């Protein structure tokens, strides 16, 4: 059967009614990517020469929460962890240029891209984990946790603002999408003090999460959690490196920016079936 005949069949199914169309699209649906099993990650030899020290995640979160007003989300997340190691181990951490992390505010210079708290968290993992695959797996876990969890739930010991933010699922690692989704859930504007308190607590949350992950990793107890992304995996079946289109590289939730058109829903799988 060629592509033209396939389109004729699809058109006939549309005329015949929704049930026939649904059956047809299911018949042409490509095989999904195989699921990846959970994997235990081991430290191995650290080529970065930056030593990690076991920390209290709660303390990391509290420090990050209060440092938010100093340098915003990325700086505060990084400082919440690295400053404690500097206090324990001294140099070279004591001379670390923490101010360099201030660029990450508002999704990098206010540009609305990667959430600064995640940027700081990924920087911490990058500092201590030298193996690329291991590092990427840990960052993937952190980012998918952020995408899929109701956040923030972090509670500061001494709150800057007498307000407990509503929690929401960001469905995205992007600052502008994450804050917009929270705004829909809470009813507050992006420039409100309430939104700032939400991001302040989210920063504490991420710092605590990264500390928990690094503690487990260097205690030889780290097992991957989010090795599969159902949303991205569906798209990557066709658009990823193993698909015919091979035009997308990524793991983030696609639906934060992209939605399927009616034409894609109806003809996408059929068209893909007969692509060269």
UniProtKB/TrEMBL annotation:
This is Putative redox-active protein (C_GCAxxG_C_C). It comes from the Bacteria. The keyword Membrane applies. InterPro entries: CGCAxxGCC_motif (IPR010181), Multihaem_cyt_sf (IPR036280). Pfam families: C_GCAxxG_C_C (PF09719). The chain crosses the membrane at residues 108-129. The keyword Transmembrane applies. Keywords: Membrane, Transmembrane, Transmembrane helix.
